[in-house]
Design goal:
The protein is of the alpha+beta class. The termini are far apart. It has one domain: 4-Layer Sandwich (Nitrilase/N-carbamoyl-D-aminoacid amidohydrolase). About 20% of the residues lie in helices and about 25% in strands. A hairpin with a 2-residue loop joins strand 6 and strand 7. It has 5 helices and 17 strands. The radius of gyration is 19 Å and the shape is globular. The longest helix has 22 residues.
């Protein structure tokens, strides 16, 4: 997978000197790895798949590795089953301890995903950031919780209560969000306003196999487009890591979900830097220049021109 920027940022054409033209004094290259794989009911097998991908990304020079949402098991939210709460773990716990050991051994920052047991009857869908020394740099608890056919997350997850706060690490300030959060421009904007240098989305999303091919493609294209739009609107790079494979409905009421993979990295103008296929386990590695945010925001000053005096209705559910 070619990790180089595939497109011009258009700034030179506008008569603006880019970071490269100024000797890259603003450049800060971050090599990011995305570990896309299928998941089964076998916890140890899934964790081994994640570990193999982390090692491969680190061997390719990645200093930040992103794993898919809930990567140690099947997407159990297709049904409402109280027994599934037994899958939850504390943080720190077995998964974070295993990933922390890898972070320490390989000297990389890793974003893992855990079904977190916070207390009896209180569970979260949580992304945990492990620093390169194995310590927990921070966690983000998913804020937007869907409740749709095949995605019964409100039965399992309590919405996060920590707000949209970037996690500070040795590789930068990480704006970590989770799956359904990726459809909300407010989430991305608040992370950007709080100083995030890159937006990261661990994800589990796919098609209903009964949908016709054009509808499936529209859904996947929408998923990619909305996240590239977050990159553009905030002048930030974006990384999204999804799972792959078909997972059956345990109750056999539907045809299950076919997760569409397509993990990708985009630059601060939404340009695709690298993308995985829809149906193959893939470790995607690409370089992101965090310094381009400054350059891009100077010519596209969206934050400067925001009308913060006129946005009061955004805190309302609906205004009509």
């Amino acid at each position: 997978m070619d990790g180089k920027n595939q497109g011009s940022d258009g700034l030179a054409d506008a008569g603006i000197a880019t970071g490269a033209q100024r000797g890259n004094f603003m450049s800060k290259t971050l090599r990011v790895g995305l570990v896309q794989h299928a998941c089964t009911d076998d916890y140890r097998r899934n964790l081994a798949e994640s570990e193999q991908g982390i090692r491969q990304a680190a061997a390719a020079g990645a200093s930040l590795v992103l794993l898919p949402e809930l990567h140690t098991g099947v997407y159990f939210c297709q049904t409402e089953d109280p027994a599934r709460f037994d899958l939850a773990q504390p943080v720190p716990g077995p998964t974070t301890e295993h990933v922390a050991a890898l972070a320490r051994e390989l000297g990389v920052v890793i974003v893992a995903s855990v079904f977190e047991r916070r207390a009896a009857g209180l569970y979260h869908n949580t992304a945990v950031v492990l620093e390169r020394d194995g310590s927990i740099a921070g966690r983000y608890r998913k804020m937007h919780i869907p409740d749709d056919p095949g995605y019964h997350e409100k039965f399992y997850f309590t919405p996060g209560d920590q707000g949209f706060v970037p996690i500070e690490t040795s590789v930068g300030s990480l704006g970590v969000l989770v799956c359904w959060d990726q459809w909300y421009p407010e989430s991305a904007r608040l992370m950007a306003l709080a100083g995030a240098q890159i937006l990261l989305y661990p994800t589990a999303i796919g098609w209903d196999p009964r949908d016709p091919a054009p509808e499936r493609e529209r859904q996947r294209d929408s998923w990619i487009t909305i996240q590239r739009a977050h990159a553009i609107a905030n002048g930030l790079p974006v990384a999204a890591c999804n799972r792959i494979g078909r997972e059956p409905d345990p109750e056999q009421r539907t045809e299950g979900i076919v997760f569409w993979g397509s993990s990708f990295l985009a630059g601060p103008q939404g340009e695709l830097l690298a993308q995985a296929p829809a149906d193959s386990p893939t470790v995607t590695v690409a370089d992101v220049d965090l310094g381009r945010t400054e350059t891009v925001r100077r010519i596209w000053p969206f934050l400067r021109d925001r009308r913060i005096d006129a946005y009061h209705d955004l805190v309302k559910r609906y205004t009509s």
